[in-house]
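INFO batch 0412 | record 1 of 1 | parsing
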Amino acid sequence: MTHTPLAPLAGLGLRSPHIADVLAQRPVVAWWEVHSENYFGGGEPIAALEAIRADYPVSLHGVGLGLGSVDPLDEQHLQQLKQLVDRIQPALVSEHLCWNRHQQRFFNDLLPVPRLEGALPLLAARIAQVQDVLGRQLLIENVSSYVAFQHEQCTEAELLAELVARTGCGVLLDVNNLYVNTLNLGSDALAEINYLPIGCVGEIHVAGFETVDGVTIDTHGAPVCAEVWALLDAALQRFGPLPVLLERDCNLPPLAGLLAEYRELAAHITRTTQPEAVPC
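INFO prediction complete | emitting tokens
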């Protein structure tokens, strides 16, 4: 069972072009999520994050650990993550179900793990290692895929469910990634949602995508589309009220524009989760 310390409200991804405005304006946002690796060093970035953390809950979202890599985990990376967790005391810590390293070469992408023999025990061992070092539960996010692998033994949801059972980790459910995979690979997003066990999801992500040469790319560079809103509704109806993050990583509008998108998400969550009025 995942117990999230965040309220079931909308959160917003904090990106560097907006940090100064956030510090100056202190906008009405329930919580912020940042990419962990951006704060591994010292100096101004971590000082700014500590100032924001003084006023808001923060979730740490990792993009570089590469849990599914055959190479051993980068011990320096893991220790830097632990130091950041200890310093910021985030509400949640998450990582992607991906790989990014091979024979000491690093790939700057979230490469999907082929769900073949050996993937499950490797991932379970890595997740257990990270949770032991951090001393807390880790949420694992489903990722976007652009090619399918032959002879896969399970769906991504089946793999996530088994990892939850073996390690006690939770799931960060990205419904935009589910929809991207539907468009690219023909997977069934609703079936993936309905397979995950009740209680395992600790956070949900929504975002936008773009299509290039007939391939749908998870750019986080566009508004949330109607189909992703519908998948969010389905997830909230299955798992109950949860913290939901709006991600924007490119084509960033000014903070005022991003806050307008955030308020749309907050209103959507309210409409989806509040009980219907019963006529007297």
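INFO post-check: Residues 10-273 form a domain with the TIM Barrel fold (CATH 3.20.20.150).
INFO record closed
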